[in-house]
Amino acid sequence: MKRLLFKLIPVQLAILGSLIIPTELIHAKDIGKDGSIRTQNVSKKDYPGLAKISLQEAISTATKKFPGKAIEAELESEDGFLIYEVKVMSSDKATTKVFVDAGNSNILGTEREGKLG
């Protein structure tokens, strides 16, 4: 789910002849905002105990904002925060991933996908 990008900073580049080597890799940010529950140094098996809202509440939040049917939902860590990722399929079969904060049910971001079938 995470995509690696090269962050090229002139001061941090090692130049060997004509070869440029980036000295730092960063993760592309998948969600738009920070969540309310941090997951650093937390085991995945402990995630359910940290969530303040239920899976059903996350699905309800996602489908109120993006009408359709929830076809997938899971509790996971994204960018260091506990979120529910809910995939919603609209009536025209287009899918949208909705990232719902597991602490307060705020929508942190979305990712529009193509049509199924």
N to C succession of SSEs: EEEEHHEEEE
Largest sheet: 4 strands, antiparallel
What is the third-level CATH name, the topology of the largest domain? Nuclear Transport Factor 2, Chain: A
Shape: elongated
Mean pLDDT across the residues is 78
Strand content: 35-45%
Content-based structural category: mainly beta
Strand order of the largest sheet: 5-6-7-8
The CATH first-level class of the largest domain comes to Alpha Beta
Structure report:
The chain is mainly beta and 117 residues long. The protein has two domains: 1-30, no CATH class; 31-115, Nuclear Transport Factor 2, Chain: A (Roll). Helix content is 13%, strand content 41%. The protein contains two helices and eight strands; from the N terminus they run ββββααββββ. It has helices spanning 47-50, 55-65, and strands at 4-6, 14-16, 19-21, 25-27, 69-78, 81-89, 94-101, 107-115. A four-stranded antiparallel sheet has the order 5-6-7-8. A hairpin with a 2-residue loop joins strand 5 and strand 6. The protein is elongated. The two termini are 22 Å apart. 18% of the residues are buried. The model is unreliable at 1-29 (pLDDT under 50).
Give the topology.
Elements: E1 4-6, E2 14-16, E3 19-21, E4 25-27, H1 47-50, H2 55-65, E5 69-78, E6 81-89, E7 94-101, E8 107-115
Antiparallel strand pairs: 1-4, 2-3, 5-6, 6-7, 7-8
Main features:
single chain, 117 residues, mainly beta, Nuclear Transport Factor 2, Chain: A, 2 domains, 4-stranded antiparallel beta sheet, two-stranded antiparallel sheet, 2 helices, 8 strands, disordered N terminus
